[in-house]
């Protein structure tokens, strides 16, 4: 008997826009409603936990593959809803900013339509320094890149703004509007 369909929710956007906190909050709310949900953390953090942060295109490709592998592991463990704190789209944007273009491998792995809903948090939170963040003054430019990429791919996204619980409530409303919560 085939397993039930898996619903994937993507959070993408510029650095320091609250994706991880939002992913955690949405995962908690979905679990409270009885969903078999898994949060898929941003794989780049795991990847760079054991190596210096000096990215190459091969690193970005490995991170993209790792992000997808983490999704597959969660599905194999029985999750029916995935809240993905980053996707391969992040790797595509990262490669373009760092190297001027994304590789064929990244383009092949990027499947933004695999996600039932894509949340695009606004860069309206204060910048929080982090060893893997390097664009404090370019968040608006990065946000625009994500918006264009999603539009070109034909992916409707919900732009999420606000502070603290208001931000979580806005994301939750987007899930409700998409009939995912």
From TrEMBL:
Q: Kindly list the organism's lineage.
A: Bacteria, Pseudomonadati, Pseudomonadota, Betaproteobacteria, Neisseriales
Q: Which domain of life is it from?
A: Bacteria
Q: Pfam families from the xrefs?
A: AAA_28
Residue ranges of domain NadR/Ttd14 AAA in the record: 8-156
What name is this protein filed under?
A: Nicotinamide mononucleotide-binding protein
- Species per Swiss-Prot/TrEMBL record: Crenobacter cavernae
């Amino acid at each position: 008997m085939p397993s039930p369909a898996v619903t994937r929710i993507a959070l993408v956007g510029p650095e320091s826009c609250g994706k991880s906190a939002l992913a955690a909050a949405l995962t908690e709310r979905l679990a409270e409603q009885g969903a078999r949900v898994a949060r898929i953390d941003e794989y780049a953090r795991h990847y760079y936990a054991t190596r210096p942060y000096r990215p190459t295109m091969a690193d970005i490709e490995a991170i993209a593959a790792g992000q997808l592998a983490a999704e597959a592991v969660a599905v194999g463990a029985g999750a029916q809803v995935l809240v993905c704190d980053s996707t391969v789209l992040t790797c595509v944007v990262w490669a373009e900013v760092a190297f001027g273009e994304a590789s064929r491998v990244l383009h092949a792995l990027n499947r933004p339509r695999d996600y039932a809903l894509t949340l695009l948090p606004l860069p309206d939170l204060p910048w929080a320094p982090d060893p893997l963040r390097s664009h404090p003054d370019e968040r608006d430019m990065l946000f625009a890149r994500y918006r264009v990429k999603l539009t070109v791919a034909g992916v409707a996204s919900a732009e999420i703004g606000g502070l603290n619980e208001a931000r979580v409530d806005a994301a939750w409303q987007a899930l409700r509007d998409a009939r995912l919560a």
